[in-house]
Design a protein that fits this description.
The chain is mainly alpha-helical and 314 residues long. The protein has ten helices and three strands. It has a three-stranded mixed beta sheet.
């Protein structure tokens, strides 16, 4: 195709949820409540980990990093999603679309790395407890967290750079809730083979390698835990790991459902629902899982509320 005849797309139109006028206010309120709950829950965890001395451990440090990733993910997606829901679709500039895609992908990639690091932390704590203090030092944890973010930001930059060079010469209507790779490739008139191949290559360090760390770590953790003679110690080990395994399972189930193993004949509505679970509801579930099933965090909440009450009474 002659490049001189291509129309330069300066903005896209996100369709969002194409639903009835009566249903839109309900969806708007539901997503808004979930968003507020997500921000509040994750900020609570970040604050508690920062101010509570008994939470100054590697495990809670990485949980707070996961909360930062969840806040970045949902804040990048939800406000614009609410706007398009109210107006039954809405425009977004080309730069705005690429920016949203970049920060969305960065959040996902960084979360993959963080979940892998968290599984390694639990592996060392349970399988090599005598070496835990010397291995997972404060400096080591900070370096691992910074590496997760830097690698995530760097890898995705390559992908976004390639996508931004695609030609969009036909329709600029994106039938999705936000700017994502698959809907953008659907409306591109360029040859997308290179992009698909690049995504496959980039998924190796960002998705496959973290999985290759998580699975062996938890296989060894399970076998080690089953050999613990004390029932109390065994239950404590399973309790701390089950929360993380639940988060990992939800995260990768939604990730693989949308991008790796989409249902054959899956329609746009189902794809949007899965994306909604992935970007809106999962970031809300994470702090709930870590707080409701974690005695240390519940104690920190009670202590903080008690101190606040005493100060207020004085």
């Amino acid at each position: 195709m002659d490049e001189n005849n291509l129309t330069v797309v300066t903005e896209f139109f996100l369709l969002g949820f194409q639903c009835s006028q009566n249903l839109r206010p309900f969806l708007f309120c539901l997503i808004l409540v979930v968003y507020c709950g997500t921000i509040w829950g994750n900020l609570l965890i970040i604050t508690l980990v920062s101010i509570s001395k008994n939470l100054h451990t590697p495990m809670y440090f990485f949980i707070s990093q996961l909360s930062i990733s969840d806040i970045l993910l949902t804040t990048n997606i939800v406000p614009n999603m609410l706007r398009t829901l109210l107006t039954n679709g809405g425009s977004i500039s080309f730069i705005g679309c690429m920016t949203q895609f970049y920060f969305f992908s960065t959040s996902v990639a960084s979360e993959c790395f963080l979940l892998a690091v968290m599984s390694y932390d639990r592996y060392v704590a349970i399988c090599n407890p005598l070496r835990y203090a010397s291995t997972m030092t404060k400096a080591c944890c900070v370096k691992l967290a910074i590496s997760c973010w830097l690698v995530g930001f760097s890898i995705i930059l390559i992908n976004v750079s390639t996508v931004s060079k695609l030609h969009f010469c036909g329709s600029n209507i994106v039938d999705h809730l936000f700017c994502d790779i698959l809907p953008l490739l659907d409306i591109s008139c360029s040859d997308t083979f290179v992009v698909h191949f690049e995504v496959m290559l980039l998924s190796i360090p960002s998705v496959i390698i973290p999985i290759m760390i998580i699975i062996p770590s938890y296989i060894k953790i399970i076998f080690t835990t089953l050999r613990i003679p004390s029932n109390i110690s065994r239950q404590k080990a399973f309790s701390t790991c089950s929360s993380h395994l639940t988060v990992v399972s939800i995260f990768y189930w939604t990730l693989f459902s949308v991008y790796v193993f989409p249902t054959k004949g899956e329609n746009r509505t189902m794809s949007k629902i899965l994306s909604l679970l992935y970007t809106v509801f999962t970031p809300l579930v994470n702090p709930i899982i870590y707080s409701l099933r974690n005695k240390d965090i519940l104690k920190a909440v009670q202590k903080t509320l008690l101190i606040h009450t005493l100060h207020h009474n004085i």
